Task: structure prediction
Amino acid sequence: MGIIKGNIAEMKAEIDLKENKIYVVKDGQIHEIDPPNSGHGEQSFVYKNGKVTRVDERKTQLL
Result:
């Protein structure tokens, strides 16, 4: 897990910089987005009213 510690009262979190992840903060909650399992692919984030509503992921398989 990439979040080392969090302080909800202060709305702060500490993350592990050794892990390759993307973090989305929405409404005070942290959502960890892992890279594609294959190690190849594309992730895009869809916003609505200034907030991320979904993550679209396209995977690529190398032959």
Notes: The two ends are 31 Å apart (CA to CA). Strands lie at 3-7, 12-15, 22-26, 29-33, 41-48, 51-59.
